Amino acid sequence: MKYSAINHQLFIDNRKKFIAELPPNSMAIFFANDEMPRSADQHFVFRQNPDLFWLSGIDQEKTILIIFPDCPNPLFREVLFLRKTNEVIAVWEGHKYTMEEAKEASGIAQIFWEESFEPALKSLMTYCDRVYININENDRSDNLVPYKDIRFANELKTYYPAHEFKRLGPIMAKLRSVKHPIEVDIIKQACGITRDAFKRVLKFMKPGVMEYEVEAEIIHEFIRQRATGHAYTPIIASGYNACVLHYIENNRNCKDGDLVLMDFGAEYANYASDLTRTIPANGKFSARQKDVYNAVLRVMKQAKTLLKPGTILADYNNEVGKIMEAELIGLGLLDKEAVAKQDNSSPLYKKYFMHGTSHFMGIDVHDIGNRYAPMQIGNVFTCEPGIYIPEENLGIRIENDILITENGIVDLMEDIPIEVEEIEMLMHGN
What we know:
With 430 residues, the chain is of the alpha+beta class.
């Protein structure tokens, strides 16, 4: 891993929280993500199962975690199974965790090699009443691949039909959505790297550069500061491209007079950041661009204040929609009388602002969490309003990452330039 070691107290505390959620005589099993084939003899870059990482800090393939607090054998109440290395693996793939390194990283005392998992499981199944199965239950997921957790769940149900099987998803969504102070510090570090990449782009941007050249500047700064890379596929969208919400080709010329919408974020120690800024390719906003940009910025500033404990995400999005509605009327994009007569189930502002304002963020950029439950202290949300006007080749989105605390919100990106005047000043080298 490129990133510095994480204090294992995070994972010890996370496991304590998790154990408190388990009914008596329950066992939970977590597998590392599969190494996904790419083609020929290649695999896609491995990324750890976020639940396993959140509970153990182990960032390596072929890892298995068992948590069985009531196991009559204390050796198996918390146990990790690791891939056993050898000279061949060391030569071809490099270093793998030793048992001592895994103990230090996770705070788990009992470490075994992966080959011990099957016989251990047979014994443990004898003594537990229910098994908690870890499958991907993010409500944005659309995964058709029968990944390891799914395959294992089917095997368990075949060989142990008398056991009770339960879902880990609701427990993990509840726990992971509330960030530990160590997690907040890691996210802040990811945000700091993202800030530096954005400032680098401000100095680099000029008419004629390609969108992919901007992307290259960003990844250079990420890797230079020990980030894993992009937390998600970056969007570098100039001119009309900014009106395509998930534009990722990043292959067009940034022309004089274009605005360039950039949605990117560093991943550091498996934690995401998520930033969007929209800047003029030539370093100067036109009067119309400035008006639309400031309208989006005003919506964002108001929307941030609505992120507070007890708020329901759906209600929040509706309230932000009303704020946006007023701004769109002010810009001449909506008619006040038409808005008064609109069908509220299909509000007119959706023509220019068609996505939600916020999502959970953490280990995954679209992190798990219950969008129908009240917001809590410790939640981290994005705040990302936008206005998209295809007929003007104009799309503007602004996005920061927001932590909810008992004393109000903390903008984790408050030190990243956002005002028109500041952006223009930095782009002109001042």
